[in-house]
Amino acid sequence: MDSHKLRKMQSRKSHSWWWDSHISPKNSKWLAENLEEMDKSVKLMLKLIEDEGDSFAKKAEMYYERRPELVSRVEEFYRMYRSLAERYDNVTGELRKNIPSNLQSQNSGNGSDYGSEPMTPSPEQTPERKPARRKSFHRAAGFDVFLGSGGGSSDLSRKCSSGGSSSSSSDSGSESDNDASVTHPGPENGNGQHDELQHRILKLEEELVIANEKLRASEEEIRRLKSEVETAGSDNELLCSRILELEEAFFVSNKRLHTSEEEAVRMKNESEMLCDTISGLEGELVYVREKLQASEEEVVILRVELEKNRASEEQVLELEARISVLESEILDHQRTIEELTMSIKQSSLENAELEAAVLGHKTTIDGLTAEVNRISERFSEDIQDVEAETTDCKHAIEELKRAISNVCAKHSQEITELEAVISESTNACVILEAKAKQLEMENTEKDKRVEELNRNLDALMTERDELRARAESLQCMELHLEQLHREHARLISEAEEARKACEGMRGRVAELEETVSDGAEGKREAIRQLCMSLEHYRDGYRRLCQAIVNKRTAVIAS
To answer: Which among 62, 77, 89, 95 is least buried, having the fewest CB atoms inside 10 angstroms?
Structure first.
């Protein structure tokens, strides 16, 4: 058992360092750097997503500015995920190409040793080997060596039994056949345990295939999410451009509204000024009319006085001059009245035009106000759509992040499980291979000794036949008995010695058969040790599965 433990430790040291350097985050600098970089990228992306602006315009501007950075982060996540998946595929591919190739080369060496043996199994035993080969065709690559070595030992036991049956017609041959039939069921039990172990390994390989399919599905999901993010980004760009256009139109409308309001105020002020001017002119017109009426009354009075006072020419001249002056003033006042009337008419026309312009500007202001309200409603709706798209993008990015973390965790867990299983399987194969080689060497030596004993036995049998022929010739020569009495006595003594030697050789053959049976007992003991080793490996595999289940529950709980 100590030698088995030592071999197990050596094989574990020889195979575990390669896995640790490629898979373990503590020993793989590349994997640790990628995981650290992914953590940093996740934190930066969360920071970019969680930052919010004060207003809708600020939010839209922040989203428009940070969208390329978010897209670059998603592309970086995808690149890192692809690199991890490719590294995982490369590691598993190298494992399948590396470890089974060494074991198959050792298996081919063992097969050449078997091919160099001169003896072949009997025709009755060849049909039993064909199903075994057909059965091992579907087995895992790492256990073909072990099953091949087991088959070789059973073939050697069959060769021993065939050699014993062909060399004798006595009871010793039947005893060797019985020993061979007793030792035969041992490898069948070992093969049954191997089949059970191999069934578990095939189950693990199927789980590996399922994990690869999940990996491909995750890659397709990531591509789909990336395309959705790009589509949402393009839609958001269109929405942002539309928002900018609406903001510009809103600004232009506000400017036009402000200009129209200023124009309306200016026209209103001008209208009020014109109204004041018209009222002033009307008052002045009333004053002039009153003055004109007073002048006319004065002219009438003067004419009356002129008619009364025709006596004085000076007064007449003075009155005529005064009348002419008053008439000129009346004409001036009439012209002033006409001018004021024209000014009033012109002011009335301008006032009407200003009122029409004010009404037009009011209509324009109402239309601009309605357009501003409509643009504000569309702007608020577009802002809500942008916020909804932003929320969807956030959810998509969170789902993508969760999918990436789940896939990374599953990959690391599957790699750890495969590492443990393959390490244990490799150690078991190395131990069983060493035992099979040792049994093979012992069986080869025993076969050589049995062949030598069979050759000696054949020589003794031929010598016995010669002696029998001589005895028959002696019986035929009874007529010459007296002449050949001494020779006959000598031949009888030689025959007696040959018989004794034959009995001695038979005893030697019996001893050798006992030695062969002891060798078969040794093989049975070796098979029992192999069964114990398989039981130990099975127990270790159960503990490993339990540890993996506990670790998985602990990871899920955390």
So the answer is: 89
Q: How far is CA 499 from the centre of its chain?
A: 84
- Contact 129/121 with Cβ under 8 angstroms? yes
Do 286 and 403 share a domain, yes or no? no
pLDDT tens-digit map of 367-381 = 777 777 777 677 777
Question: Do the Cβ atoms of 70 and 243 come closer than 8 Å?
Answer: no
pTM for this model (two decimals) = 0.26
pLDDT the model gives residue 527: 80
Instruction: Find all residues with CB under 8 Å of 553, minimum gap 6, and list them.
Output: none
Shared domain for 232 and 141, answered yes or no, is yes
> Stretch 443-460: mean pLDDT, rounded?
82
Is the pLDDT assigned to residue 444 strictly greater than 80? yes
Is residue 167 domain-shared with residue 88, that is, in the same domain? yes
How far apart (Å, rounded) are the C-alpha atoms in residues 254 and 20?
70
Per the structure, the count of domains in the chain is 2
Residue 70 has pLDDT above 50, yes or no: yes
Residues of the domain holding 28: 2-241+389-557
- The span from the CA of 460 to the CA of 416, in Å, is 66
Alpha-carbon span 234 to 250, nearest angstrom: 24
Same domain, 187 and 335: no
CA gap 184, 187 in Å, rounded: 7
